[in-house]
Design a protein that fits this description.
It is built from four helices and eleven strands, in the order ββαββαβαββββαββ. The protein is of the alpha+beta class and 280 residues long. Its main location: cytoplasm.
């Protein structure tokens, strides 16, 4: 039986990347994007689809970069779409990228919150997993609030209070049909000038949302999706040194037990990647 394993990390391998060209200028970029997603997502979940116009010295038209999470699905898509017209009147060229992966991209990076949701929903369905917040707590110390007085060196327009807010979150991720449960945690903070209660409330709401998303991302980094040849999906967990699996949280987050630097504040990974690929 054919088996494929997907992780919730950014795919950087060239054998997961397709290069499509000879796209006619019959449609706009957004229309081409929708058609490419419709065709290639039938082979498996997509990490990235990017459409670009041909260089000025080339004939009018477009080319596209398509990234899969699975090398096997990328290869199957290439074999079954190369030379087919698909959504236009002339055939398209579809090749696997042969561009060498830079060394600095080799370490795996967690997917963004949006990509985690897309991959989980695509493979497991919207009812195939659940997330529950175990602890969401403000960790701000009173000493981190500094008055900004009128006439002071730190005075800003309209006055206000310089504040630092910090929130921590512990979240449980469950896969009810597979009998698997894991947890993730995160801490976020932000420094700002508070000019009124509305500003403080907005900041608190925003940080609570961000810390929940980061905790979910951290939980997904321990998850492996095992795709079987019969189109069934299994869920397994990988044990990591940073995995947080206490029996009882007691409403307290032990911040020093974690390393948060590996989780960037926001990601749109791959969107600005270069497309000067060589192909096989």
């Amino acid at each position: 039986m054919e088996v494929d394993i997907l992780e919730f990390v950014v795919p950087v391998e060239n054998n997961k990347t397709l290069f499509v060209w000879d796209i006619q200028p019959s449609f706009t970029e957004p229309q081409i994007y929708v058609r490419l997603v419709g065709v290639f997502s039938s082979f498996g979940p997509l990490y990235l689809v990017k459409v670009s116009p041909n260089a000025p010295l080339h004939p009018p038209g477009f080319f596209a970069l398509i990234k899969f999470y699975s090398a096997a699905q990328a290869l199957k898509a290439q074999r079954l779409t190369d030379g087919c017209s698909l959504f236009q009147s002339s055939p398209l060229k579809v090749r696997l990228s042969s561009k060498q992966t830079p060394h600095f991209l080799s370490p795996s990076r967690p997917l963004s919150h949006t990509h985690c949701l897309e991959l989980a929903n695509h493979c497991l369905g919207f009812n195939g997993w659940t997330s529950d917040i175990l602890t969401l707590k403000e960790l701000t110390n009173e000493e981190e609030e500094v008055e900004v007085g009128v006439g002071g060196e730190d005075e800003e327009a309209g006055g206000g209070r310089r504040m630092t807010l910090r929130f921590g979150c512990l979240l449980q991720l469950s896969f009810p049909y597979h009998g698997q449960t894991t947890r993730g945690a995160a801490v976020v903070e932000d420094s700002f000038t508070c000019t009124g209660p509305d500003v403080l409330l907005q900041k608190r709401c925003k940080l609570q949302k961000v810390v929940r998303e980061k905790a979910l991302v951290q939980a997904f980094t321990t998850v492996l999706l095992i795709l079987l040849g019969n189109e069934k999906v299994m869920v397994e967990l990988k044990q990591t040194p940073d995995q947080f699996l206490p029996e009882h949280t007691e409403g307290v987050i032990q911040v020093n037990e974690f390393s948060w630097s590996e989780f960037p504040a926001d990601e749109d990974e791959g969107i600005n990647e270069e497309c000067d690929l060589t192909v096989t």
